[in-house]
Amino acid sequence: MRVAIVSPHPVYPPDSGDRVRTSQLLTGLRKHGVEPHLVAWSWSKHVAESPWPSEFIPGKPFARLPWLAWRLELYARRRLDPFAQFRMAVVRSTLVPAILRASPDVVDFQHPYTWVPTGIPDVCTFHNAETHLAPHLGQTTVRRVNAVRELEKRVLASVRAAVVFSEADAVRLHTLAPSDAFVATVPLGLRPMGAPRKTTHSRHMRSAVFVGTLSYPPNADAARALVEMWPRLRAESGLERLVIVGRDALRVVKGGDGIEVFSDVDSITPFLVDADVMLVPLLAGGGVRVKIIEAFAHGLPVVSTSIGVEGLAVQDGVHAVVVDEPADIPTRLQQLASVGTRRKLADGAYELWQTEYSPETMVASMLEVYERTLRGARQADPTPAKEWSTRS
User: Fold this and answer.
1) Rounded mean pLDDT, 73-88
2) Residue 323 in contact with residue 305, Cβ under 8 Å?
3) Is 366 found in the same domain as 338?
4) In the chain, how many domains are there?
5) Which of 38, 177, 226, 293 could cross-link with 54 by S-S, CB 3.0 to 4.6 Å?
6) 202 is a domain residue
7) Element spanning 58, H or E
8) DSSP 213-241
9) pLDDT band at 390 (very low <50, low <70, confident <90, very high)
10) Does any domain span residue 117?
């Protein structure tokens, strides 16, 4: 089987959640004898060498005059279409030929805004239910929210299979999809790069870490909330360092007085290894948080809001500490002062990662989706072969 993975950007180096997931899917497919081929838009002239067969197509003109015209058109179109940069003719004109050159049996579009009709059996992986997220991403005008909804409805009516990472997003998409649409909930799986699982924990809890792409508004709001509550966190829990790391971090928050900020790092692994706890004070979002799965796999205790762990089979006090509001984090964090409590929580989280969120589990599930797509099925199986399969 040959599978073309269409991404809105290169996925190597894997320095964000969807890049980590997509890169590990490509690696896992190859191990199963599948021929993966990455087709990705490049928004820069310089693209890191990819470990997989890949074709990078320009996302924008690089000559000055065409670039200026592109910027003007993009500015006008973005008022109505929040995904305009991926849907302009100059951007999409080279996409279908690039896909056809890969000669795939199945095409897997990452995100609905990358989808184009090709005549090849197709899957769309919804990393988030965008209609649900639109009000939280600054897309508050009625026209922009409607544009997101209509895009998702069109894609769901056109592709042979849709993939989501949580049952909550599956329910959201079923409100937009035709009755015979196949929506599969596939566990998001990954294996951290670099350091192995942490098996020893420092006696005193000194360092907390927050990880995220801060150009994403829910992550930016969460980081700001942590900075605001830092004096209370430090006073009540004994923490000495708050580390905020991720793409565009320095554009959103500043370091100082025990707060350290790192932007656009090559790997988050050293920061997870050095931390005693991960804090995830999210109040909005969709899909599944890759950073929490990475923390579980590293043996790092997690304190998160319920929205942060949405879509994960997490039990409060068994796999993570779960709070209703970010303001509850300092109080609940005191429960992790004991190294034994932190070790027990990390052990439970690591076991959950092994059974539910390894890349092997994810790849096996995706292969079933691809095989079903090749069979041309459009309705959900009345007796799903696996628990992750769609609810009709």
Assistant:
1) 86
2) yes
3) no
4) 2
5) 38
6) no
7) strand 54-58
8) -TTSHHHHHHHHHHHHHHHHHHHHH---E
9) very low
10) yes
CA distances (Å), 331 to each of 46, 129, 239, 310, 325, in order? 47, 32, 13, 21, 11
Confidence of residue 328 (pLDDT cuts 50, 70, 90): very high
pLDDT 10s digits, 94-110: 899 999 999 999 999 99
271's tokens:
């920061």
Backbone angles phi, psi at 6, to 5 degrees: -100, 120
In the sheet that 207-211 helps form, which strands lie side by side, from edge to edge? 259-263, 241-246, 207-211, 277-280, 302-305, 321-323
Residue 298 forms part of a structural domain:
yes
- The pTM for the full model equals 0.82
pLDDT at residue 391 greater than cutoff 60: no
Owning domain of residue 128: 2-189+359-374
CATH for 364: 3.40.50.2000
Find tokens 């009345």 and name the residue: 382
What distance in Å separates the CA atoms of residue 28 and residue 366, rounded to the nearest whole number?
A: 10
Task: Please check whether residues 215 and 307 belong to one and the same domain.
Answer: yes
The alpha-carbon radius of gyration of the chain (Å, integer) is: 21
Q: Do 219 and 320 lie in a common domain?
A: yes
Residues 6 or more apart in contact with residue 240 via CB below 8 angstroms: 206, 207, 234, 258
What is the rounded CA–CA span in Å between residue 290 and residue 292? 5
- Residue owning tokens 């500043």: 254
Q: Which residues contact 30 (CB under 8 A, 6 or more apart)?
A: 36, 52
Asked whether residue 170 is domain-assigned, the answer is yes
Statement: residue 369 has pLDDT above 80: yes
Q: Which pLDDT band holds residue 151 (cuts at 50, 70, 90)? A: very high
Cβ atoms < 10 Å from Cβ of 117: 9
Question: DSSP label at 382?
Answer: S
User: Is the same domain home to 349 and 367?
Assistant: no
Cα–Cα distance measured from residue 133 to residue 111, given in angstroms and rounded to the nearest whole number: 13
| Amino acid, res. 66 | P
**Quick one: 71 and 155 in the same domain?**
yes
Token pair 């909930």 in the structure block, residue: 185
Q: Give the orientation angle of helix 17-31 with respect to helix 359-374, to 10 degrees.
A: 70
Q: What are the residues whose beta carbons fall under 8 Å from the beta carbon of 338, sequence distance 6 or more?
A: none
